[in-house]
Amino acid sequence: MSYPLVTLTELKAYLGVTGSQDDVRIASVASNASIMAERDTGRVFAVTSNTTRRYSTDGQASLTIHDRPYTDGSRVVSLGGVALTDGAGYWLLPDRRNQDISTTIQLRYYDTSRPDWYKASPNWFDANLDAPRLANGTPNDLVIQGVEGHPSLPLDVHQAVLELAAWLYWRERSGASGFVTTPQGDQVEVSSDYPEAYQAMVRNWRIRTAVVAI
Q1: What is the rounded CA–CA span in Å between residue 66 and residue 81?
Q2: To 5 degrees, how large is the angle CA 90–CA 137–CA 45?
């Protein structure tokens, strides 16, 4: 992944820290905060190209995937080993939080509770998908390759990660006392809870993906 979601310069400005004597620690908490944001939300915010993920559809008409740009000319999607065409074989649905991103892929029109659900797969006959033992679909049958993440980081996510990184930094500096002196000379108590902005961001952005492997 392309970490961090906030830069060293941004975090130092937010902290009011000048000089480079603490750059290693600040860069570390920036990276840690970015990783935590993705872990706690189930999202992929950091953008990378040529990323491949495999999912098990279990015969579902649609499922939740990791964040993908709504438009990506490099994207390749296959189901059961057969390449699908965007707008005909699959549809990416705009995300509720960021309309330029999708975390839902729809693979067919009709109700998957029908006994002939497997016919939506272009390779159903050769893959023997009508066999009784495959009534719920085959493992790792959906493969998505291309750009992953948010090319433009949402402002509320950026601010939340910035505040979390600052909180991690001050918590490390405060030690057992729980108090820290800021560069401006103020003595501040570091809360034991994550910043409110970060907690709200996690609640707003959290999803559960159906990923099987990378």
Answers
A1: 20
A2: 50
Q: Please tell me the distance from the alpha carbon of residue 118 to that of residue 70, in angstroms, as a whole number.
A: 26
Whether the bond into 4 is cis, omega within 30 of 0: yes
What does 25-54 look like in DSSP terms, one character per residue?
HHHHHHHHHHHHHHHHHT---S-EEEEEEE
pLDDT digits (tens, 9 = 90+) for 165-206: 999 998 887 765 666 566 665 555 566 788 999 999 999 999
DSSP of 148-180 = ES-SS--HHHHHHHHHHHHHHHHHHHHGGGTEE
**What span, in angstroms and rounded, lies between the C-alpha atoms of 212 and 135?**
19
Number of H helices, E strands in the chain: 4, 10
Residue 9 has a pLDDT of 96
